[in-house]
């Protein structure tokens, strides 16, 4: 697979992913799928019954990348690699995605308090006739968090649109006693794995 220049499509609304791609000098155009419309969302992110967490995030990342590429082909747009990603918190085998509301985020944080959880981020790059995948697995340990601290954290509005109801790059960092793995992966885009996939597409990852 080849790509003209260091430019891709990013199939994500996440500002963290945009920041991380910019950090490593990757040019991108954001390509957004509908999250809600009269006919419903383009992607149903509900996990299948008994679906393994790693399979779940890989499936969603692949769908985002491949569905976005199909749209580009239909529109006759210039074709470049399309990057899709999905992140989930996993606690004792249970998948924690994005909270539906502040109360849901509070329930997630209460469950994560004093526990070690896994953070999985899958990335997929769809280009030409092939979609390549990588997955990053990290662990995060939280100290005990009081109910009052959870309420104060939720008032900061950091939990919205974050897997597990928290952002490691924000105030939630004061709850974390230990991480193992990829900091950028916990943020939502593991840069090592991303660079490897883009290199496989023919991109030179250094200036």
Number of domains: 1
Largest sheet composition: 7 strands, mixed
Number of strands: 7
Number of distinct helices: 6
Distance between the termini: 20 Å
Extract low-pLDDT stretches: 35-40
Structural class: alpha/beta
Spell the H/E element sequence: EHEHEEHEEHEHH
> What proportion of the residues form beta strands (DSSP E)?
15-25%
SSE topology sketch:
Blueprint: E1 7-10, H1 15-23, E2 27-30, H2 53-75, E3 82-91, E4 94-96, H3 102-112, E5 116-127, E6 130-142, H4 147-155, E7 176-180, H5 183-187, H6 191-200
Parallel strand pairs: 1-2, 1-3
Antiparallel strand pairs: 3-4, 3-5, 5-6, 6-7
Helix pairs in contact: 3-4
What is the compact description of this entry?
This protein is α/β, with parallel strands linked by helices and 207 residues long.
Which terms summarize this structure?
7-stranded mixed sheet; globular; Maf protein
Q: Would you write up a description of this structure?
A:
By secondary structure, the protein is α/β, with parallel strands linked by helices. The chain has a single domain, classed as Maf protein, CATH 3.90.950. Strands 1, 2, 3, 4, 5, 6 and 7 form a seven-stranded mixed beta sheet that branches. Helix 3 packs across helix 4. The longest helix has 23 residues. About 3% of the residues have low confidence.
């Amino acid at each position: 697979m080849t790509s003209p220049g260091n430019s891709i499509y990013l199939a994500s609304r996440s500002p963290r992913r945009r920041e991380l791609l910019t950090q490593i000098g990757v040019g991108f155009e954001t390509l957004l799928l509908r999250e809600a419309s009269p006919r419903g969302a383009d992607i149903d992110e509900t996990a299948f019954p008994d679906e393994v967490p790693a399979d779940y995030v890989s499936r969603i990342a692949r769908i985002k990348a491949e569905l976005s590429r199909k749209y580009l082909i239909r529109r006759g747009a210039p074709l470049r690699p399309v990057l899709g990603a999905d992140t989930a918190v996993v606690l004792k085998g249970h998948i924690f995605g994005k909270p539906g509301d502040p109360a849901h985020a509070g329930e997630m944080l209460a469950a994560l308090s004093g526990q070690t959880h896994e953070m999985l981020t899958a990335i997929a790059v769809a280009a030409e006739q092939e979609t390549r995948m990588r997955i990053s697995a990290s662990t995060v340990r939280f100290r005990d968090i009081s109910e009052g601290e959870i309420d104060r954290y939720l008032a900061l509005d950091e939990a919205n649109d974050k897997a597990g109801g928290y952002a490691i790059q924000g105030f939630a960092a004061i709850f974390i006693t230990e991480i193992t793995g990829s900091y950028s992966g916990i943020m939502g885009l593991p840069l090592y794995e991303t660079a490897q996939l883009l290199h496989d597409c023919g991109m030179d990852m250094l200036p």
